[in-house]
Write a structure and sequence with these properties.
single chain; 318 residues; alpha/beta; Rossmann fold; 6-phosphogluconate dehydrogenase C-terminal fold; 2 domains; six-stranded parallel beta sheet; three-stranded mixed beta sheet; 12 helices; 12% strand; globular; binds NADP nicotinamide-adenine-dinucleotide phosphate
Length: 318
């Protein structure tokens, strides 16, 4: 029998992540009712058509009223404004969480608007696709993916436990870590790869017409995977870079130094260095497969002999 973890769940924002939570919660029966909030009337109407919740509103306070768990599922840069809007409506003992891809900035933005007696357990499900909006969500998005929790020091352990149980109920694995550690880890594993993808696809789009057409035609040679990542939502990713600035700039500086070393090796014909580097990186790939975070099917799971590709197989997970 499925265990109900919260009575009233409020989803503030109902795009890819909010709607995937709604689908997972409905499928697993882990919440009594779902209050759906979103900014625009047309998105709200679409959420209603998709039957994502039990009540619908464009007012964050109305959704949060009486909720046991309120999850902000909006772009990182909008977290402070939505917390300011729903903060006064929170009942004592309510738990507030979020799904933002950056944690330090979200905590700084949201915490000042939360009244005493309310628990704040920020979280980040590391699962996603390059699609956005309420139509993009699906119940299995979080299956076997990590959800990282970054509660500020002194957070009630029972509230942390509830949020962990909630995410495990959605199919995820959970781990608790400090917000600044999260932001550094994600800068290298997610934010920098997205920046590189946006940049390389941007470079290709600046090529002269004939060359650009050839790049698209022969894209399977590696470029194609960058185009998928670079198709990710521009609002979300603008906010990620603006709000994880320090960690991204630090990792970008390290990346640039390493790139310069490779550039030198190519220029001076240092094959040993290239071979050594490319051998070391294969071990990382093996490690990811060994812990089950990707498939060893060839060609990124797209070979006719491999299983059908699934969302989350490659990047796109903010
Ligand atoms: P999404 O599909 O674009 O949905 C965004 C939601 O936020 C919509 O309901 C939208 O409302 C609302 N919204 C947008 N701008 C807003 C604003 N300025 N004020 C208030 N509400 C606003 O986005 P998503 O992919 O679900 O991402 C949501 C959060 O999840 C982000 O913080 C992101 O960092 C995090 N995340 C994303 C991924 C991923 O791969 N996409 C993975 C993990 C975590 P309207 O449509 O009504 O305007």
């Amino acid at each position: 029998m499925t265990e109900k973890i919260v009575n009233r769940l409020a989803l503030i924002g109902i795009g890819l992540i909010g709607s995937s939570i709604a689908h997972a919660v409905r499928k697993k029966g882990i919440a009594g009712e779902i209050a759906v909030q979103t900014r625009r009337a047309e998105t709200l109407e679409r959420a209603r058509e998709l039957n994502l919740g039990d009540t619908y509103t464009t007012d964050p306070a109305e959704a949060a009223d009486g909720a046991d768990l309120v999850i902000a599922c909006v772009p990182v840069g909008a977290s402070g404004a939505v917390a300011e809007a729903f903060g006064p409506a929170l009942k004592p003992g309510a738990i507030v969480s979020d799904v933002g891809s950056v944690k330090g900035s979200v905590i700084a933005q949201m915490a000042p608007h939360l009244p005493g007696g309310v628990h704040f357990v920020p979280a980040h499900p590391i699962a996603g696709t390059e699609y956005s909006g309420p139509d993009a969500g699906f119940a299995e998005l979080f299956e076997n993916r990590w959800c990282l929790l970054t509660p500020p020091d002194g957070t009630d352990p029972a509230a942390i436990e509830t949020v962990e149980r909630f995410w495990r109920g959605c199919g995820a694995m959970t781990e608790v870590m400090a917000a600044d550690h999260h932001d550094m880890v994600l800068a290298i594993t997610s934010h920098l790869p997205h920046l590189i993808a946006y940049n390389i696809v941007g470079t290709a789009s600046h090529l002269e017409d004939v060359l650009a057409a050839q790049v698209i035609k022969f894209s399977a040679s590696g470029f194609r995977d960058f185009t998928r990542i670079a198709a990710s939502d521009p609002t979300m990713w603008r906010d990620v870079f603006l709000h994880n600035r320090d960690a991204v700039l630090e990792t970008l500086a390290m990346f640039t130094e390493d790139l310069t070393a490779l550039q030198r090796a190519i220029r001076y014909g240092d094959g040993d260095l290239l071979f050594k580097r490319f051998t070391e990186t294969r071990a990382i790939r093996r490690g990811i497969i060994e812990i089950g975070q990707d498939t060893e099917a060839p060609d990124f799971g797209r070979s006719p002999h491999a299983r059908a590709p699934q969302d989350g197989d490659t990047l796109g997970d903010g």
